[in-house]
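Re: that backbone. Tokens:
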């Protein structure tokens, strides 16, 4: 009873605060609804970035991968700091000075309207098939493990998954559809504090349990018994070989943190360019703490339960249930619930933004006013939420774990998108036709490599992360050649007059350097510990 009441209290508190902070917002105004009226300070931007990214897809998926493979999987979390540095230094200033609301709008300025619509469609398909269902399913797994829903309700495990998927999806849709970006960002920040505290408490309690009351004894036990899993420098046989850090891992992180609409939209809502850069760099520092709560718990679970769990995605929920006192379970459950909602409602709100501004107003009804665009976006978001809730349980029992499956599927869309955006920013000669061809060709080549050729190229097996980088290089070369053969005559006009507060943060380069050094230091430190 105490667990349930504390869960309701914290969840209700977040909802009330979010409503109070946004009750006077005008959702008839598209800028207010989709960009929070450019009112977000740096710490809200940082919190929203972290919570949009950090969900049970991370807590359960990445810890599950660590349970199976060790610390090598931290690459997806730690290398993200480099992606955030590039966002602060290079991508964000160009987005900001363009006066855009969505990334596809940037491509319209560089290429043409059809390119924008194609990219918007790709973003929507990616979020619908590769993000929303994974968030819902992993969230349902986490809540079931924490609250033992199947026993409480007396239903099968499959039925309990369906029930939790619909509970989470309905609550998240209400935040995103009726609250707008500001409500999403405010709830993100509150839940972010709780999740950081709770997320760090789990490995702390786990080490105490392993060491019979001593954290250092628990840590020594892991170091002695799992020494071959501590070094983050993966071999060619590892889930994440060391060489992929400089190819696919880096590339996918650049896509995610620099061009993914669900992420970058948080920075578009900042008070100024400087505030946005501060928020992005603050998030980069927080990513360096990621292994403490996204990798270490998986290794603690392996030490505590051995290989008895089978499916790595059960590791984190089982650990939480084993080490968390009952009087804290409800509060942590509420925080976890908030993290699930954060990722789900952020992506859902981005889908509404893309459809409302880029497809409905951009194609279907160009004369629609702001209130009409917001209304249509809400209707689309509602339909999308229902579809995602129906699809979520279908992805159960992924052989490589949820996290790796999500990354593999994401590469279908991510690589061609980042290739086109990079070429749009760095060249003037690439024509719109080359960008359009590349978006479709990039998806086709990856699908053929993965599902037709069985991850082999010309008879040689190749890690999928290496092929992602190779595919990126191929698309960039193709566009460059097309630019030479048929140069574009479009001159990009950055709409600096549409925005204000374009002054960059003076300390952004110094702060970025510290982040890069911290990333390298973390790898060196763990490698020495595991040697």
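Recovered sequence:
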């Amino acid at each position: 009873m105490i667990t349930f009441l504390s869960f309701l209290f914290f969840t209700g508190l977040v909802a009330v605060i979010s409503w109070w902070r946004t009750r006077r917002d005008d959702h008839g105004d598209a800028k207010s609804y989709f960009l929070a009226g450019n009112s977000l300070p740096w710490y809200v931007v940082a919190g929203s970035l972290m919570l949009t990214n950090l969900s049970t897809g991370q807590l359960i998926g990445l810890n599950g991968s660590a349970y199976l493979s060790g610390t090598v999987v931290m690459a997806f979390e730690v290398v993200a700091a480099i992606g955030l540095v590039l966002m602060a230094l290079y991508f964000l200033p160009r987005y900001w000075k363009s006066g855009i609301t969505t990334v596809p709008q940037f491509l319209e300025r560089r290429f043409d309207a059809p390119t924008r619509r194609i990219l918007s469609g790709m973003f929507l398909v990616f979020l619908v098939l590769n993000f929303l269902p994974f968030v819902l399913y992993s969230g349902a797994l986490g809540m079931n493990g924490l609250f033992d829903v199947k026993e409480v309700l007396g239903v099968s495990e499959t039925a309990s998954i369906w029930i939790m998927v619909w509970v989470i999806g309905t609550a998240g849709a209400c935040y995103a559809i009726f609250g707008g970006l500001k409500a999403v960002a405010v709830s993100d920040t509150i839940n972010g504090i709780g999740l950081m505290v709770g997320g760090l408490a789990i490995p702390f309690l786990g080490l105490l349990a392993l060491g019979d009351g001593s954290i250092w004894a628990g840590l020594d036990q892991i170091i002695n018994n799992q020494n071959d899993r501590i070094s983050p420098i993966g071999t060619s046989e590892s889930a994440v070989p060391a060489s992929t850090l400089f190819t696919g891992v880096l590339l996918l992180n650049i896509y995610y943190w620099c061009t993914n609409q669900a992420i970058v939209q948080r920075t578009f809502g900042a008070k100024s360019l400087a505030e946005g850069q501060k928020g992005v760099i603050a998030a980069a520092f927080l990513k360096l703490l990621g292994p403490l709560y996204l990798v270490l718990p998986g290794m603690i679970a392996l030490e505590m339960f051995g290989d008895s769990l089978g499916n790595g995605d059960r590791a984190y929920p089982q650990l939480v249930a084993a080490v968390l006192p009952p009087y804290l379970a409800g509060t942590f459950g509420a925080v976890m619930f908030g993290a699930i909602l954060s990722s789900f409602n952020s992506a859902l709100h981005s889908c509404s933004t893309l459809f409302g501004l880029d497809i409905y107003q951009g194609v279907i009804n160009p004369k629609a006013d702001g209130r009409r665009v917001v209304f249509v976006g809400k209707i689309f978001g509602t339909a999308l939420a229902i579809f995602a809730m129906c699809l979520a349980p279908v992805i159960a029992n992924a052989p490589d774990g949820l996290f790796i499956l999500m990354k593999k599927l994401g590469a279908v869309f991510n690589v061609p998108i980042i290739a086109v955006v990079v070429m749009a920013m760095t060249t003037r000669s690439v024509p719109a036709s080359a960008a359009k061809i590349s978006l479709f060709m990039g998806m086709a080549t990856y699908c053929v490599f993965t599902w037709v050729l069985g991850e082999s190229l010309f008879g040689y097996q190749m890690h999928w992360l290496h092929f992602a980088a190779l595919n990126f290089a191929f698309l960039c070369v193709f566009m460059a050649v097309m630019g030479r053969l048929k140069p574009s005559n479009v001159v990009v006009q950055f709409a600096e007059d549409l925005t204000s507060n374009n002054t960059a943060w003076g300390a952004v380069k110094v702060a970025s350097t510290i982040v890069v050094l911290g990333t390298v230091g973390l790898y060196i430190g763990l490698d020495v510990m595991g040697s």
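The first strand starts at residue 456 and ends at 457. The mean pLDDT is 81.
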